[in-house]
Specification:
Helices cover 76% and strands 0% of the residues. The chain is mainly α. The protein has two domains: 16-119, no CATH class; 156-242, no CATH class. The N and C termini lie far apart (85 Å).
Length: 242
């Protein structure tokens, strides 16, 4: 006598249970991936990182390709978001080793940026990339440099300009465009890095000294920023007409 075939509901229940079990074990899988990565067993590390990410995707009823920060609570899931960003970081480095898989490395870098930007651990991840780039350990160095620029610089506000002109969105947009152009050259990147390192200190000082804040903002920073904005707009118009 033939056995009773499971109906769709039973099959669905089994899949749900299997998915939940995999989800509960995901951190164990991730830990194994990290251990393999530390030992230099890259193929096994890649396999388990992908298992971890695909498990998360299945739990959130999406695919790994579409998995994004939108599927997580930025406060409650902050630890998981950090783990995901590091999983993509390790995958990006692993795929970077193979010329055939460089495109996958770039995709994982894009994911790494998405799971880093705007979160509390953003600066930590930026420094991690910076050290990696500085040691020139990447084969596709421009892609990793771009990831660093996007995490560390592009997401930051223009501190002094925002302090002086908090409501002037046109001016702030122009300065962001200028910043992006500076990032395309080595000296420009260095200037922007120094600016972001020193500006918060200056802003904190100004906010603690009301008199100097008013004087320096009115007679130094505002005219200087307006001048830079005017020069940039003039150069942009001239370039357009050429």
């Amino acid at each position: 006598m033939a056995g009773k075939k499971p109906n769709q509901a039973e099959e669905g229940e089994k899949r749900s249970q299997a998915m939940l079990m995999a989800y509960r074990e995901r951190l164990t899988v991730l830990k194994r991936a990290q251990e393999f990565s530390a030992r230099g067993d890259i193929p096994k590390a890649v396999e388990r990182y992908n298992t971890y990410l695909n498990t998360l995707a299945a739990y959130h009823f999406t695919t790994e390709e579409d998995l994004g920060p939108k599927h997580f609570d930025p406060e409650k899931d902050i630890a998981e978001l950090l783990l995901i960003s590091h999983a993509y970081w390790d995958l990006a480095k692993a795929y970077d080793r193979s010329p055939r898989l460089r495109h996958e490395s770039v995709r994982c870098l894009e994911k790494f940026v998405r799971f880093s930007t705007g979160f509390k651990f953003q600066h930590i991840n930026a420094q991690m990339v910076k050290k990696f780039v500085k040691r020139r350990r990447a084969y596709n160095l421009p892609a990793f440099q771009e990831a660093y620029n996007r995490i560390y610089v592009n997401s930051k506000a223009c501190f002094i300009a925002t302090h002086c002109f908090p409501e002037d969105e046109v001016l702030l947009t122009n300065l962001r465009e200028l910043k992006n152009q500076l990032l395309e050259i080595y000296l420009g990147r260095k200037f922007v890095e120094i600016y972001y390192a020193k500006s918060p200190i200056l802003i904190d000082f100004l906010r603690s000294n009301d008199y100097l804040n008013k004087v320096l903002t009115k007679f130094l920073f505002k005219p200087l920023i307006k001048g830079i904005d005017t020069i940039y707009k003039y150069a942009r118009i001239k370039k357009t007409h050429h």
